[in-house]
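Exercise: predict the fold of this chain.
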Amino acid sequence: MIEKINEELLFKYGTYILFPLFILYPSIHSEMFLFYLFLTLIKIKKTGYKKSGLELYIGLAIVGLGVSFLGNWQSKIIKQVFSVAKILVFPLFIYQFNPIRELEKKLLGLFNILGVYGILEFLVLKSKTMTPGSNRYFSYLGFFMDSSVVALSGYIYCFIYLLQKKEKSKIEKIVSAVGIFIFSYLVLLHQVRATYLSFVFVNILILVYLFIKIDRNKKIILILVLLFLGGVGLKSYKEISSSNNVYVKRIKSIGDTKKNHSNIARFYFWKTAVKTFKTSPINGIGYRRFNMNNIPVEPKYKNEFYHAHSELFSMLAEVGVVGTLLWYVFKLKILQLLYLERKKTLGLFLLLTFIAFEVQTFFEVYLVAKNTYRYLLLLLGFVYTNLKKEEN
């Protein structure tokens, strides 16, 4: 019976359907996990397990979170760790299968379709909002913060495709250029300040990369263009900064540490996380337990105390030195692998995407709904499999 199943065909076409569908409707994540698990078990039964080189580091990350169970002895900790483990194994599942052919072109098409849908969602449909009557709309992954990560990754991909891809048609150039503008606008529309910071940071990295890559004459042109844009920005700064535009206000609030409640609360949670860390520095108070249900805080902050509003500070409080160290060993391994593939379009895209995401995680926690991690680990699986098997 198993021999009659064409798992490669099911994997390919299932991915074409499920991955975009998950980005738009993340509630299918359990079904998606079972789909990939089922196909992976069949593949291993037929051809054996193929090592990707990520197994040790994924194992260390899971163990690091699981160690927080010791001394805290709550079954909820194990459940939460298991839910993360189900995400971290996605690249291992995907690595068992043949790489998706022409992945670069297919991602360009996917991102641009998502970009057009994203603009329509914000400006026309407006069917997805954080709360009824709220102006915090989103397009992807079920929440505005997660949605902004997809928008930023789409921007990075279109930009890198335009810069890095050597053989591309005029249509591909136009599509990637249009995608840059669409996704940069979507990043703005999401009003996620951590994503604004990531956007600036990743553009600096792209400019540095571009400056290194181009010849001397083009370097001079680039410097002149940047000086011109800088001059325009300085001349317009007062007018822009005094504007009542909602996006300008949102950007200005990033540096407001005295009046902005979100910033004040964030600093308070970080200090509370450090105090909590000191009570159990080795393995923490238990994964996903640094919140209003377990830690007393001032009443004015209680309703927004879901986590430390920073992955680093949440990790320190919840899993201590051991768990935090192992978690970031796993992340650094991913960055190392992608850095080695930076000369390729897919490698550079995902390297910049993960770097940008790390900037975002310093100011937010994406391990609650976990859909951003599902999205990134699936992308990692597709890209890493493509890059490694292309080499072999």
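Check your answer against the key: The mean pLDDT is 92.
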